[in-house]
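BUG: 3D viewer hangs when loading the predicted structure for this chain

Environment: internal workstation, default settings.
Expected: structure renders.
Actual: progress bar stalls at 90%.

Input used:
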Amino acid sequence: REELFANAAIAVFDIITDLARVAPREARRIVAEGDSLEDLLINFLREVLYLYNGERWLMKEIRMTRFGNTALEAEAMGEPLDGRKHEICKEIKAVTYHQAEVRRIPEGWAAKVIFDV
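Structure tokens produced before the viewer hung:
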């Protein structure tokens, strides 16, 4: 599950920009809580998206430092958005609950999340 959540966070920034141009220069702490795994994932991705929308910061890497069924903490690495270096490919406005799903599959874990763009 930790890898699923980390990959979902990276996917947010992979949609927003070319991650090859983002450097892991600064750390940011992310904390999220939820009543279920779906709720936790949505709240976590909302915190992740705030790094871009609220702080104009781009994430390159993430590491879970605490992970449970209803709460998590993570350390993200990245850098401030620089218009001379980073191209914004697609703006994500919000993470939605519409059809949100986190489930166990034979290979591990899978999730479905829909973004407003």
